[in-house]
Amino acid sequence: MSLLPEKTEHMGSDGTVLKSGNRSSVLARSGYWSNRPVFEKTLLRDTTSYQSRPKPISEEIWNLITRRSDGLKDLEVLGSATDVYAVGYESLIPAYVNPEIKNTAYRVTIGSKKCKKPYEASIFNCSALSYGPLSKNFIMAINKAASKGEFYQNTGEAGISPYHFGIDLDIEDPDFEIDRFIEDLSEIPIDMLPQIGDIVWEIGNGYFGCRTKTGEFDPVKFQKIAQLPYVKMIEVKISQGMAPNKDLPMPSLTTGFAKILNVDLDTRVKLSPGHSEFSTPKELVEFIDKLRTLSGGKPVGIKMSLGRKHEFLAICKAMVKLGLPIDFITLDGMEAGTSGSARGVAGFCGVALDDAIVYVHNVLSGLNIREQVKIIASGRVFTEREIILKLARGADICATARGIMVAAGCEQQRDCYKGTCAKGIATQDKTLQNRLDPFLTAERIYSYHEITMREVTELLSIAGLTHPSQLRPHHVYKRISYTEAVPLDNVYDYIKPGQLMSKINWRLPKQYRKDWFRADIHTAF
376: which of 66, 116, 330, 525 fits an S-S bond (Cβ 3.0–4.6 Å)? Predict the structure, then answer.
């Protein structure tokens, strides 16, 4: 069984070489991709299906991402049509001197003092996208783009598959075994597979990929995958995961997918309401440290939607008391999307990402652990503007999932859960999957990422900065009335480093006192 991919090449209409895993690339040759926004929008604008529901991503942003994935820079002619006097409008304040930025490969080091193998992450990455709900060709395309663009790909919580390594294997083959694949992969020298992109392995409460048949965490399985050189970080999802107390959706299961998840194809799999390995903040922090040790010293973090504030404070208290910092926290805002959440949940449950960033940044800073714990912002981050605004509030890096999907061709039909995606993104139908060429799609995702990063550089230069880590709240102004705009540090109450360490109660920031006294590292979530 060879793990080395085969490549073929096709010539585009403009003479450029198009890499492809399929025999034909008719759409690319015809010039369809470069004219797709105009072509498809014109044909579909008056159809009932296109107008049936409002789209989570505006047409303006959709067009911008699509043009960038086509390699076309989006230019604003005759100025902006945005109402800059609208309450809530935010703007980056320019400097009088704009430095030339030569090194645009912005990296942020993730890994606390407990890490032996810290990771240098891009400031813009691919958020969690799972194989199963999404097709193998799409997952492979992301990894190829991540390799070329030097950003990471998050696996999502549905296990880790060959496709996350950009390797096209038939997992439905009766001889396929995920454990043997991992062993074979570990024996191949890393320089033999240079095309594999960086991977962040996400683990949910089902422990898919590192579980026993009965659903308990399996440290041996975890260690084998976590120590692969391509897996750069591990992310434990503690909230905003699959719906608790629900069955795993069996129609999406195939024999091969069941092997990846390590579940029985003919058995109903009940997802627990929480993690079986921990139930208190103290146990969570100890579990993170256990995973860090098993992985060989790689960064291990958590993914969460900010919920009850006293529980988050308890997690941070546990980090300080035990001296075991969590390496990173991925914040999922309530504006984030999934493949199929209940209508009553979407946009109603959770905390908005901007508010969550400021709160988490404040708590970590107030406990003097901000430098050790990095913040990753995920939720409606599509362009350089959102990246700048999230970093100015306190995030270290950003990640997007829907932006990657749009770059791959997603048209927001919002039927992902049906598995009938005509673009070959959210489907396990082989005929539909073959509509998505992983090599061409990888180039589109890479182009979107690359142009967005160039635009970040332009904004940084305008602000008089040379690196995203220099962004601060005072660099962004927010309009609070028609006649007044103020910097973000006048909008939010940023607390001073170490302010939560005070043993004198009245010195604790007033807005944190009640939750601080309630936070207990031994109380179950």
Answer: 330
Q: How many domains does the chain have?
A: 1
Structure tokens at 293: 């040790």
Taking only the tens place, the pLDDT of each residue in 211-269 is 998 889 999 999 999 999 999 999 999 986 344 445 555 556 788 998 999 888 776 66
Are the beta carbons of 375 and 338 closer than 8 angstroms?
A: no
Phi–psi pair at 121, nearest 5 degrees: -100, 150
Contact 452, 124 (CB under 8 A): yes
Residue type, 473: P
On whether residue 322 sits in a domain, the answer given is yes
Domain that residue 374 falls in: 107-476
Instruction: Please check whether residue 19 is in contact with residue 7, taking contact to mean a CB–CB distance below 8 angstroms.
Output: yes
477: its two tokens: 């102004």
Please give the Cα distance from 240 to 304 (Å, whole number). 7
* Phi, psi of 286, deg, nearest 5: -70, -35
Cα–Cα distance measured from residue 165 to residue 203, given in angstroms and rounded to the nearest whole number: 17
Domain CATH for 124: 3.20.20.70
Range with lowest mean pLDDT among 97-101, 141-145, 461-465: 97-101
Rounded Cα gap, residues 90 and 110, in angstroms: 29
pLDDT at 242: 40
H/E element holding 396? none
Mean pLDDT (the chain, rounded): 87
State pLDDT tens for residues 167-189: 999 999 999 999 999 999 999 99
Percent of the chain with pLDDT over 70: 84
Structure tokens at 194: 């240079």
Of 416, 421, 377, 419, give the one whose Cα is nearest residue 399. Answer: 377
